[in-house]
Specification:
It contains 8 helices and no strands. The protein has helices at residues 26-29, 32-44, 51-64, 68-80, 85-90, 102-115, 127-136, 139-162.
Length: 176
Amino acid sequence: MTNTDSTTATTTVDAPKGSLSRMPNPGEFVPELNDISAALFRATGNRSVPRATMSLVHLRAGQIVGNTYLTILNTGFLRKAGQSEERITAVSSWQDAPYFTDAERAALALVEATLQPAPHGRERVSDELYAEVAKHYDEKALATLTIAIGQINFFIALAVIGKPQPVASLADEQWD
């Protein structure tokens, strides 16, 4: 489906005919999901971490778990926020890309450490990584960033199990 409303800049991605989400919208069966989602967005929307950084972290999480829905959604958020195509494209190889600030690099390293298995006998989030992140974010921002990583983990489960159709905006219909 494509959003043809000329007042919006976002579009849904054309899905193959007959392509439906794997499961119905879970919010129809568990209405409390809307409250949880809204609370997570309020908790991460306190402006202590730039919105672009949150979207970069969420995009990287979608890439790590290989989820098209989350990858397209967060790519759309970054485009809508005016982020360059170079920055968006380079998220998957952020370690050697020149497009990110030290604070963004710390946030991207934190989401990777959280989502990927640690080498045997090592912590996922080392004291060194924590210290690097804390160098760039005050206590409120670090708590917000931690919640944002938890938020995307919450949505990862819905996205990989439910397999909603990819969209570029939360306003677009995502569950069939």
